[in-house]
User: What shape does this take?
Amino acid sequence: MTRSRPDHGIRVAVSTVIFSLRRESDDDEARVVLPVVRRTRDPQKGLWALPGGWVDRAENLESTASRTLAETTGLAPSYLEQLYAFGDVGRSPTRVVSIVYWALVREDVSRAAEQHNVAWFNATELPGLAFDHTAIVDYALWRLRNKVGYSRIAHGLLPDRFTLADLREVYEAILGRRLDPANFRRQVENSGTLIPTDDFRTGSHRPARLYRYNQDVELADRGPLPQ
Amino acid sequence: MTRSRPDHGIRVAVSTVIFSLRRESDDDEARVVLPVVRRTRDPQKGLWALPGGWVDRAENLESTASRTLAETTGLAPSYLEQLYAFGDVGRSPTRVVSIVYWALVREDVSRAAEQHNVAWFNATELPGLAFDHTAIVDYALWRLRNKVGYSRIAHGLLPDRFTLADLREVYEAILGRRLDPANFRRQVENSGTLIPTDDFRTGSHRPARLYRYNQDVELADRGPLPQ
Assistant: This one.
């Protein structure tokens, strides 16, 4: 291994913003939540921070995201996407460039992953986070809200089969506003991304048809990047 | 300055993909072109590569992009956007994470910046590039084609005042296909992003009205990231 330059004193870390949905009760509306991890070391020991860690020299960036997520939160999301590289000089006492990923996990998965030292907060009611992690979450939320409009990203928060009301609730939680049910139904039916099943959900309400996503459409179009 | 960990042997570089337009003659159609720099050092000495360089410890990432662009190509684009962080283990003989930016420059600016060791190639007729730079250009082109559809990104390739034919030509060069002039006119007129001026371009064709972009609209929506 040749080194054409001396160490330039910049370290590379990976952090991940993982969004999920939570309802306090069945009647409650869903809210976007995310996990943060209590820092057990300086700098900023004791503060909440995004799950993450150092990139190992022999490890790809996305592998680091998966590994550090599993180590800190026990989560294994099916889908990770690179969000942005944050590298400002003053963001940490030492120079750290953080490659940030984002991911979605379903409510049942996120509930099963409760771990010591990890807390889930409403995305809009976060405590002060370590370093520039509050700004990172703001940017991730902005990307999520944008992306839900032109991709099937909501799929990452839903079970395999769901009603149109379930889907609308995901959109409402992400966008932070109510959507008109009739307009919403028309838009998703015209989008070609949903396939109706022959099954219905029954219960206290009138039966509601279950849908699934058209698997021929990519979850998110990453272009020529490796999938 | 405290160092909580030893050097982990990963270095951080910045590279930039700068797109411009070129016409061989006034009658020729515009093509998307980009500059590459001949490598004067190993590894991969002699190959063409994207302009870039190492991040200095006291330098923000975007500053590195601007500095290395100026040093290698003489270009100073008005707009730089982060594209993606490329960090696969095998992309270079040593471990290098490259934060890639992309930019647009107008044809007159790019023509004025001709430098020793820099060549401009059609984006679709590139020679083999060093490292994974061909894949990086493919991804940047994909982003450019996507982005031109939902933002005023074409502005970065146009002078302050332009005709609708000029604007259509930018779209055609980026998308690689012809657009119907009447449909195109209707779409941009409905978009609210253009302001007609009282001036016309005259010449061998019938006079064509000059437009300018509505400066109240951001060039690209970067959300809560610093502008």
